[in-house]
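Reminder to self: tokens first, then the designed residues, so the page reads top to bottom the way the pipeline ran.
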């Protein structure tokens, strides 16, 4: 929703923009108070879901920041801080010092689907470099290594799929 709003709503009517802003705000207000989201800050729940939710929340805050009254910025900053806590928990607990992603190569690739645009947007928004940690560069190298042709598109069975299904060779992303 945040990406759609940011990329496609410049020409929308005020009513359309307000409707999407209200919907995004509903999600942002809901998530920090509900177990299905705040639990990602704690083990054993930390993982790719938390990072994806956290990055999505941050993208939503950035996308709507200039379109809401300044009186709402404190609440939005609080939601961004919550999202960042989810991103950092995953990075701290799941991303290995050697770059290996502890949930496997498919989830390792999955986290970057939202982290990459959020990290870039955040750098432009307020100068925060969410991926300054050298482990993020190492995980990119690790993902490339894990998907070399010699592996035939197989994965290690690390919470993402069985080795025998060759999901990397068939995966649509």
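Designed residues (173 positions):
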């Amino acid at each position: 929703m945040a990406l759609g709003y940011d990329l496609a709503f410049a020409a929308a009517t005020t009513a359309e923009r307000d409707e999407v802003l209200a919907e995004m705000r509903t999600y942002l207000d809901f998530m920090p108070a509900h177990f299905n989201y705040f639990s990602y800050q704690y083990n054993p729940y930390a993982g790719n879901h938390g990072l994806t939710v956290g990055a999505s929340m941050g993208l939503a805050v950035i996308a709507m920041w200039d379109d809401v009254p300044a009186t709402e910025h404190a609440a939005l900053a609080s939601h961004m801080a919550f999202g960042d806590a989810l991103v950092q928990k995953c990075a701290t607990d799941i991303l290995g010092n050697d770059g290996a992603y502890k949930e496997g190569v498919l989830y390792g690739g999955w986290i970057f689907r939202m982290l990459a645009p959020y990290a870039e947007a955040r750098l432009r928004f307020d100068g925060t470099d969410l991926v300054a940690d050298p482990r993020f560069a190492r995980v990119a190298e690790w993902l490339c290594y894990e998907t070399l042709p010699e592996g035939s598109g197989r994965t290690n069975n690390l919470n993402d799929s069985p080795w025998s299904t060759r999901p990397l060779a068939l995966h649509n992303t």
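The mean pLDDT is 88.
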